[in-house]
Design brief:
With 175 residues, this protein is an alpha/beta fold. Helices cover 39% and strands 14% of the residues. α5 (120-130) links the parallel β5 and β6. The two termini are 27 Å apart. It comes from Streptococcus oriscaviae.
């Protein structure tokens, strides 16, 4: 298993560090973002003022934000409807099913999209498979739902390999 499949194009402290300027610089037209621990803390469905400002800034710039989540439809709908953003639920990351549905729905090419997520094993791997640019962010909180805890164990093993082969992942404040 090559670490290339898990190496993000960018590593940022948080999703909200992805700016309109950074997206334009990299010719990104649409942002796909994971839900739990990336856009919102998995246990805080209301989000933060910073998150709401980020969505507002991207919307004002004409850059659609689409949540691409492995969660069930009802869970994702309940989480994002208050923010007025689109979503693809049951995305089955690390496979590309949900990403491909979103690409088709928004009629965009993979090189025009960035996927932001907090997990190498699902978000970054799926973005790589689909040909999208990827942004790895630190989880918003240090606890995970039970489903994610298994992936975190696998992720820690991959991070050790990345550290050994590449010196680790350097988190920055902009793309």
């Amino acid at each position: 298993m090559s670490i290339e499949q898990y190496m993000p194009d960018f590593a940022l402290e948080k999703a909200y560090d992805v700016t309109v300027e950074g997206l334009r610089k990299h010719k990104i037209k649409v942002v796909f973002v994971d839900l739990d621990n990336t856009l919102i803390a998995w246990n805080n469905p209301d989000g933060t003022p910073e998150m709401r400002q980020w969505l507002h800034d991207l919307r004002d710039a004409g850059i659609p934000v689409v949540v691409v989540s492995n969660n069930k439809y009802e869970r994702v709908k309940r989480a994002v409807e208050q923010f007025g953003i689109d979503f693809e639920a049951f995305a089955l990351k690390p496979f590309t099913f949900g990403i491909n549905r979103a690409l088709k729905r928004f009629d965009v090419q993979p090189q025009e999209v960035v996927m932001i997520g907090d997990q190498l094993m699902t978000d970054i791997r799926a973005a790589k498979r689909a040909g999208l640019k990827s942004v790895l962010v630190k989880p918003l909180i240090q606890t995970d739902s039970i489903n994610t805890q298994i992936n975190r164990w696998r992720e820690r093993r991959m991070m050790k390999r990345i550290k050994a082969e590449r010196g680790g992942i350097d988190y920055k404040r902009e793309m």
